Structure formats: structure tokens, C-alpha cells
Amino acid sequence: MQTKLGLDDQRQRDLALALGAFIVAVILWQIQGAALFVYPFRLFVTMIHELGHGLSAVLTGGSFVEFQVKKNGAGLALTRGGTRFVIIQAGYLGAAVFGAALLFLTHRVKQPGRVAIGVGILIGGLTVLYSGLSLYKLGAVETVLAAAILIAGGWLLLTRETDEGRYAGAAVLVAGSLLALVFAGSGNLLTIIVGLGSAAVLVVIGVRGSRDVIVVTLTFLAFLTGLQAITDAWILLKIVSLPASLMPNND
Description:
Helix content: over 70%
Structural class: mainly alpha
Number of strands: 2
Strand content: 5-15%
Order of helices and strands: HHEEHHHHHH
Radius of gyration: 21 Å
């Protein structure tokens, strides 16, 4: 009986946290002055939107070439083949499905941290595969520089006898890896930052965060993604009513 009561208390607490996350998401999305705070989440939603296009191309027999996230919050997915009608719809629908699935899993599994870790790994993997990263973009000087930093970091990590020394080695390794990513992703750096940055934050929260922090974070992302999908779809309806000469490129 105590266990059941404990589970009921936890569900009620999770529900209260979810309601709070929803209220905050709605308020932030409506306040003009909150644009700076919302901006990183806007880029996150754009990434999910473009991944929806790309993955739908793969699921309908085509291929996913690359996706891009722009500074103004717009995005672009380059695909080849597949069912065009499904691919076009999958941006908004994909974002809505992602938000719904994230909300469902967060409040259904016993350890929501695993959901955060899983989503982080998935986003990180898709970013590495489809953000345009390529070692072929590295020139000779860039390759030597990145390799030298990575070797130095590895040497420090393996040879230092103190925690401080090993931490320094790990920091140098991270710096070298980031530099290599910058070189390998030239021309699409923002996309890489958004994708790998989101992945890292989710994994860290999943591993180190308390249950309350994890539930609030995932629920907030779920609601925000869903709200943005609805908002973008509404804006699209307004855009398609414009004269052809005034209509910008869109889904």
C-alpha cells in the first residue's frame, strides 16, 4: 500500500510539474520581450521540423541528404526521392508527433532520464549523419592543428597522476574535438551547434539531473515543440493565401 501511495504521489507531482511547464511555455511564447530566451528553443524546434522532412524521405524510399538551421529560425532539408507529398507534410506533423511522443514517454516510463538520454543520442547521431559534417572539408593545416590538440589532450589524460591534470587533458580533448567539428562542418556550423549542443544538454540532464528537473525539461520541450508546430502551420495558411508574386519559399 505504501508503494502504491508513493506512486500516486509521484504521478500527482509529475502532473503538477507538467502543468507548470505548460503554463511557462505558453507565457514565454506570447511575450515579445522573451524572444531572446525563446530563441534557442526556436532553433531546436526548427531542427526537429527539418529532421521530420528528412526521416520521412527515408521512410518513403528516398534519401536524406542534409539539413540546415538558419540564424533567423528558418530551416532547410535537402532530400532525394521518396514521396514528395508525405515529405512536405512531415515537417509540421513530425514536430507535433515528436512533442506528443516526448510528453507520453516522459510521463509513462519509470525513469524519464533514460528518455532524455535516448533523445539526446538520437539527435546527436542524426546531426553527425545529416548536418553536412565531412572530414574531407579539412585542409592540411586544419588536420594537423586538430590532430595536434587531440594528441596533446590524450597524452595529458593518460599520463597525469592528479585529477586536475586529467581534467585538463579531458578539456583539451573536448577543445580539439570541437575545433575538428568546426573545420569539418564549415558552412553549416550553426546546425552542428544546435544539434550537438541539444544532444549534450539532454544527455547531461538525463544522467545528472534530478527527476523533477528531467520531467520539467522534457515536458517543456514537448509543449514548446507542439505549440510551435501549431503556430507555424497557422502562419503557413496565411502565407499560401498571398499572391504568387509575394509568396516566399515554404513547405
